[in-house]
Design brief:
14% helix; mainly beta
Length: 471
């Protein structure tokens, strides 16, 4: 196996940037895309068909710890001072997320006889998340004054991937007060690069035979990728020998499909206590992707102490650098392999408690909502939901909560308004609007409305648009 230095880390870290807390689409029963967030969601449509490649597009970015204004705001403050202030308040739990999603195919239908709604489709997602390696930032800014600079390898935590999802699912009601749903998924990935669960420290202390002793303490570092090494080794990206046409051709070939397949599923249920009160729970992306094409993995483990060299002047000069290199390799073993690996999907959990505002007379005559019966009213009653969210981002908890108000002013217009907060955006006011002309539906959602007034101070935005036909 080929061996290299463990100091080659954070390669392509700049790619690391998946906003997954999506309260506006969760449990939105009049919107087909809700089935990907709440599999138990039933539809009021007999049949719907998403306009190919236009049924649902979304893009989102989130960052916490600082904003663009903190670094580049025109407030006559020295940039170095701004950077120092940001770094002083930055924590290793702060990070950033990016998600671009495109619904390529989307359709569904309802079978009233079996009280079952079916849905299926194909979508593409490019998503990434990363956490700020604060100790590396501080080392780059301040260096190692007095031996105080410590590089914490557990600060290195990121994941970036692009993949297709082919899914089929259903929601079913065994009785009017309880129904459940499932989605079955097949993944095909175009590429991945990730590193997580690293340990160890790199630092310097006062030496006995030299000014400093450099310490590599309990190092354990792992980085793995699929679809990246060819860009470096074959296409020479980042060098003067790079062939841009070949890079483009190789990227297109990977995005058209690879042998990196995986499987997963979603599950959710809704308990209806009465016509007004209901509870939902969903767990999403219980699955994995097996990467075996263009795989490149780095693994380093061990400890090492280095106190410089004692220069001697023998008749035959010594190769001091080779001695240091050999000692380091023996102490901190670093291997590169091409073995395939399994990457777990970042599982998400949603839950909500919904109160539907039904008039007293209707509530007295309706014990539960019967989803198997055709809708008898031209518009739905308003509702208020308390929503909770959890996602495991490679050992970091992504938490969110808030309220969602749903209002249907007319039979052709649906609106949703949410007020939420999570790890990335506080006081997040968002809105969703869906309207129809005949059987043609359009929708638009915009999150963090206040952030749109000043993007420089915003910690993130999400926009979703789409159109579909429903009957």
């Amino acid at each position: 196996m080929k061996k290299i230095s463990p100091l080659i880390i954070i390669l392509f870290y700049a790619q690391s940037a998946l906003a997954q807390f999506n309260p506006l689409l969760y449990d939105w029963t009049s919107h087909p895309s809700s089935a990907l967030y709440a599999p138990q969601t039933y539809t009021h449509h007999r049949f719907y068909l998403g306009i190919p490649a236009l049924s649902h597009f979304q893009i989102s970015f989130q960052n916490n710890g600082f904003t663009a204004y903190d670094l580049f705001g025109a407030n006559n403050e020295n940039f170095n001072k701004k950077w120092q202030n940001v770094l002083y308040n930055l924590k290793s739990s702060h990070g950033f997320l990016l998600h671009i999603g495109e619904q390529i195919l989307d359709f569904g239908w309802k079978n009233d006889f079996s009280a079952t709604t079916y849905h299926a489709g194909l979508r593409f997602d490019a998503e990434a998340f990363g956490f700020h390696p604060v100790s590396f930032y501080r080392f780059a800014l301040y260096g190692n004054p007095g031996g105080q600079g410590v590089l914490e390898l557990n600060d290195i935590n990121f994941n970036a991937e692009a993949f297709y999802t082919l899914y089929f699912g259903f929601s079913r009601s065994n009785n009017p007060s309880f129904h459940y749903g499932m989605n079955f998924k097949i993944y095909n990935s175009a590429g991945n690069i990730s590193s997580a669960y690293n340990n160890g420290k790199i630092y310097s202390i006062e030496g006995q035979n030299n000014y400093y002793t450099h310490v590599f303490e309990n190092i354990r570092f792992d980085m793995r990728s699929s679809g990246v090494s060819m860009l470096v080794e074959k296409d020479k990206i980042g060098t003067k020998k790079v062939n841009k046409n070949q890079v483009q051709a190789d990227l297109i070939s990977r995005f058209l499909g690879t042998s990196d397949f995986g499987a997963g599923m979603d599950f959710g249920f809704e308990k209806i206590f009465n016509a007004r009160l209901s509870y939902t729970f969903s767990i999403l992306d219980l699955g994995f992707i097996y990467y075996n094409s263009d795989v490149f993995r780095i693994h380093s483990e061990g400890s090492y102490r280095y106190e410089g060299v004692h220069v001697e002047y023998p008749d035959t000069p010594k190769d001091y650098w080779e001695e240091i290199r050999t000692d380091f390799k023996q102490s901190v073993k670093t291997d590169t392999t091409r073995n395939g690996y399994i990457h777990l999907r970042p599982t998400r959990i949603y839950t909500s408690m919904k109160w539907t505002f039904i008039p007293d007379k209707e509530h007295e005559t309706t014990a539960c909502r019967d989803i198997s019966a055709p809708e008898s009213k031209p518009k739905l009653p308003p509702s208020l939901s308390f929503v909770g969210f959890y996602q495991n981002l490679q050992g970091h908890a992504y938490l969110g909560t808030g309220i969602v108000w749903e209002w249907h002013p007319t039979a052709w217009l649906d609106t949703r308004l949410s007020y939420t907060f999570d790890n990335y955006i506080q006081n997040n006011i968002s809105v969703a609007i869906q309207w129809r002309i005949g059987h043609w539906y359009w929708f638009l959602t915009a999150e963090n409305i206040m952030g749109l007034t000043d993007l420089g101070r915003s910690n993130g935005q999400r926009i979703q648009i789409g159109t579909y036909l429903a009957f």
